[in-house]
Amino acid sequence: MKKFTIIVPCYNAEKWIEQCILSALKQDYKNIEVIFVDNESTDRSVEIVENIKKDNDSLIMSSADNIYPNCWDEARSEGFRLMTGDYVLVMGADDFLDESFVTNCMNIIMMSP
Hints:
By secondary structure, the protein is an alpha/beta fold.
């Protein structure tokens, strides 16, 4: 079974980050990794994700310098460095996934030549 990585770059997303991370972790596709990369948030985003991690050992947390404001480059690059999946999705910290999103993606990918 191919591994699927979900990278979540985050900068000040405390309003949405809990629902975002939980939707990534609750995928019905079982071979996934979720990587949260904080980009020097000044709100409670990291604290919220640390609380989620207590019950989810598979959640990977990291951080990246926020060199270019309003840009995902640093956080996305850190996620790419850490990932071990065969396929990857970078999702916004204010996005949410249906629980079958990765399964549907993988079904389409596996049907392609």
